[in-house]
């Protein structure tokens, strides 16, 4: 399978390395508006360089693409790929509206191509270690999840498009919050039934820089997500409280469980964890193209977008938003 990458941003190199690591997959082309950025990712693998994704698709040099671009651009690129019979792995969030997400899904289904949404948290070793422990019943029933993450949304701290709501769809919630919602719903074990939220716009930012979300999942699990900008130390930690004990997950340290005063190490962080996750995600995508069910369903990816939008509505009105039950696939 010949892979193309559209958007030579921060994780493009991880996708490129992943393609080289997987038998039957090769990096064929990289596209970015900046030719030098595309070339930096492409050259180690001898891949072609493009500055127009339409030309890359029309050239017939790829069988599948990774779309790694600003959020609101996903729709037009997915539709173009589908029109050329090219399979798609689109980075989260899948879109900035549910209508766009449905349009993308329908277009790929009609064209007979596979669309998978890149939700990298499902492939991170420290999250998988906890998921395995939960599936084995080691913590009993999950009761509560707290997801606490820092970021930096000071203007100038990241590319300008992140601060343009028409392009990004919002600020810290749709970017960092999408990761938190994804992994917290996954570990919490159910879709959300209700959400409340608050946001802060600091530093003169036109999009939210900080905020909290509180959710009740359909299975009764209580979930709280906190995102804070410009912290003294980087924070990326989940706390899961179960009937029998607790667990913490931190990609910089690992996964730890405590039951009745006894601490167990479930995973110790390795320098290879992030690359391994991106490689595993690409392998999952390749398997989906071959007919397997992907690790992350399109329904889950769309529910994450639904919750981000509901959080914005809840923050604006100061009232809870009730969610319709998510159909079981």
Automatic annotation (TrEMBL):
Residues covered by the Gfo/Idh/MocA-like oxidoreductase N-terminal domain: 2-118
Residues covered by the GFO/IDH/MocA-like oxidoreductase domain: 129-247
Any one Pfam family match given in the protein's UniProt record, by short name: GFO_IDH_MocA
Domain of life: Bacteria
Ranges that cross the membrane: none
InterPro entries attached to this UniProt entry: Gfo/Idh/MocA-like_OxRdtase_N (IPR000683), Gfo/Idh/MocA_oxidrdct_glycsds (IPR050463), GFO_IDH_MocA-like_dom (IPR055170), NAD(P)-bd_dom_sf (IPR036291)
Keywords: NAD, Oxidoreductase
Classification via PANTHER family: BCDNA.GH03377
Protein name, per record: Dehydrogenase
């Amino acid at each position: 399978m010949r892979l193309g990458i559209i958007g030579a941003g921060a994780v493009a190199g991880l996708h490129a390395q992943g393609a080289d690591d997987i038998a039957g997959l090769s990096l064929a082309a990289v596209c970015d508006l900046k030719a030098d950025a595309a070339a930096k990712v492409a050259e180690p693998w001898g891949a072609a360089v493009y500055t127009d994704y339409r030309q890359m698709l029309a050239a017939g040099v790829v069988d599948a693409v990774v779309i790694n671009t600003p959020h609101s651009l996903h729709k037009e690129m997915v539709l173009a790929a589908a029109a050329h019979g090219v399979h798609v792995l689109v980075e989260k969030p899948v879109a900035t509206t549910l209508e766009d997400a449905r349009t993308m899904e329908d277009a790929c289904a009609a064209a007979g191509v596979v669309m998978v949404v890149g939700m990298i948290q499902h492939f991170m070793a420290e999250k998988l270690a906890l998921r395995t422990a939960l599936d084995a019943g080691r913590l009993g029933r999950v009761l509560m999840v707290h997801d606490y993450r820092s970021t930096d949304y000071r203007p100038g701290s990241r590319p300008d498009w992140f601060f343009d709501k028409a392009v990004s769809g919002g600020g810290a919630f749709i970017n960092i919050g999408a990761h938190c919602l994804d992994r917290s719903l996954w570990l919490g074990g159910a879709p959300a039934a209700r959400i409340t939220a608050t946001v802060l716009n600091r530093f003169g930012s036109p999009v939210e820089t900080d905020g909290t979300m509180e959710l009740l999942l359909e299975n009764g699990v209580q979930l709280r997500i906190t995102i804070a900008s410009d912290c003294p130390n980087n924070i990326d930690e989940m706390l899961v409280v179960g009937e029998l004990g607790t667990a913490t997950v931190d990609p910089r340290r690992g996964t730890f469980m405590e039951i009745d005063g006894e601490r167990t190490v479930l995973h110790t962080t390795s320098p290879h964890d992030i690359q391994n996750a991106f490689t595993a995600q690409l392998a999952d995508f390749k398997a989906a193209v071959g007919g397997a069910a992907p690790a992350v369903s399109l329904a889950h990816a769309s529910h994450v977008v639904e919750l981000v939008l509901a959080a914005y509505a809840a923050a604006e009105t100061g009232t809870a938003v009730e969610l319709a039950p998510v159909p079981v696939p």
